[in-house]
Structure formats: structure tokens, C-alpha cells
Write a structure and sequence with these properties.
CATH superfamily: Peptidyl-tRNA hydrolase
Shape: globular
Distance between the termini: 17 Å
Strand order of the largest sheet: 2-3-4-1-5-7-6
Radius of gyration: 16 Å
Length: 202
Amino acid sequence: MGETLAIFGLGNPGAEYADTRHNVGYMAIDWLAKEWNAGPFKQEHRVCSYASLSKRSTKLFLIKPLTFMNNSGNAVNWFKSYYKILPENILIIYDDIALGLGNIRIRKQGSSGGHNGIESIISNIGAKFHRIRVGIKGDQDVFKMHNYVLSRFSLYEQETLNKSLELFPEIILTILKSGYDKAMNVYNNHPPVINTGNPLEI
């Protein structure tokens, strides 16, 4: 791992979008900040909100774009350029309606898979960044995509999702210590609750 890792959690700013399915990326960033006592978030030119800290000799940025989901690439590109961060040192966390609720998929590079936020990022900085998808599909059928991704989780769904969010500090530390391939082997294709048998020091 390099000296810097910029972790972006995708979502939409504003109280009306808080805790909606499309804001799972925001939730992951908030969880990491809370678990690691990352301190208050700062705003940069109304483009993004971020906190910073160090783990395993790596400077981490925990970032929430403020440009709305479909223009996420504008925030990522601005932050990347301002702080001179290489695309391979960028990790994007975002929702995936094709995955069951709480399931996690870590991937190195690739296409957008039809996700507007990722498509925006690719159009701005290319595809050489890493991703973590978090499943948001519950038991109900999806009739209108736009309405569904902007809906909120039920209490049971939120409890299920939280079991996955709890894993994110461990996932990031695994990436820092052992790389993305190790993290993919451990966390991909698993249900939300995972016991690795060897918890990492946080």
C-alpha cells in the first residue's frame, strides 16, 4: 500500500437523503470515522466533506462527495488533483442493487456496472481505482429503480446492514496490511457476518 489512501463513500448530501439505500457509501465513511475517532469533517469548496487520520503508516482520507451521486466524479477528480493522489490509491464504496442486502464485493478496477456515480468517476479519472460494493437489495421486488434506491431501510434491514458496516475497519486494515487480493479472498462471496478467527488490531 502506498503512503496515501483516499476512501470515498458515495451518496447524496442533505437530510432528505440521509439513511437511504443510495447513501450506503456515506454510512460506511461515517462508520469508519466513528470507529477510528477520525475527528470532525471539513468541507472543501462545497465539493466534498472529509476527515483524515493515519493507519499502518498510511494517511487515510475519509471522504463524502457533496456533488450528488450522478456527479460524484467531479468531487473525486477535484480531491485527486488537489491532493495529488494517484487513481490506484483511490477506493470507492458504493451501493449495488444487484447484490443481496449487506453482501460485500471488493474489486480492483473494472466497469461501472450501470452505476451512475461510478460512471461519473470513470469519465473524470478513468477506471484505475478500486471499489467496494455493498448490497442494498432487500426481499421486496424492485419496480422503479429511482424510487427504490432513494427509499430507507426497514429496522430489520438496517440491523442486517450494520453487521456489514461493522466489518469495514477490518476490511480497510486488511487492505493496508495484505493488499486487495487478500481482502477479496476473505470478504467477497460471504454473508454479512464474518468471523475471520484472527481479528486485526484497530
